[in-house]
Amino acid sequence: MRYLFLILISIYFTQSTTAQIYEVGVFAGGSNFIGDVGATDYISPNQGAFGAIVKWNRSPRHSFRASVIFSDLEGIDGKSDDPRRKQRGYSFNTSILEISAGMEFTFWDFDLHTSGIKGTPYLYSGITIANHDNYYFLNGEYTSEDTNSWAFGIPMVLGYKTNISNHLILAAEVGARYTFSDELDGSVPDNEDREQFSFGNTNSNDWYVFTGITLTYTFGRRPCYCNF
User: Fold this and answer.
1) pTM confidence score
2) CATH of 26-227 among 3.40.50.300, 2.40.160.20, 3.40.350.10, 3.40.50.970
3) 17 falls in which pLDDT band (50, 70, 90)?
């Protein structure tokens, strides 16, 4: 995890030596989980989520973006609308560290070197990798495997951003993460020797959603977008 984080930071600072304008800031909001345990509401934050974000604006229409977000994921069968889950009564809570990198596209030009307040919807996608501890359910009890794993995923983020001053940009966004893992909620043990404890739809992977705001500070010289 440490080496991957250092690689991402090194790439960013190497590229930013020739960047014209870039952003650094924070993310704050909430998370919710969609899987084999708990409710299946698409946007229903029930745990806090906090992190840092950096962007390299390469044109008024697109930016390279990276972020690190910390959150807990929680699922409680008793809060589900499914009567079978309510009767089962499982629950879990696990912490994740997500690292994400990709590209952000704006619907309209977002040139911060023109005067006045401006805003635009945007889309973001790329790749995510989330570190989580491994658990499984033993006789209904959420039991640690004393290991951790990395879950790769694809972020699908929709947001709206606007500048609130010459150097501050405020944005609100909702971002679903489709993961290539079914282990986040403990429904599939990581250890193959515990495969008999798997349950739920093993053909459907886990999702989680971050809903929140970002506040970034932008700086750099006036851009020349002619090269890219």
Assistant:
1) 0.86
2) 2.40.160.20
3) very low
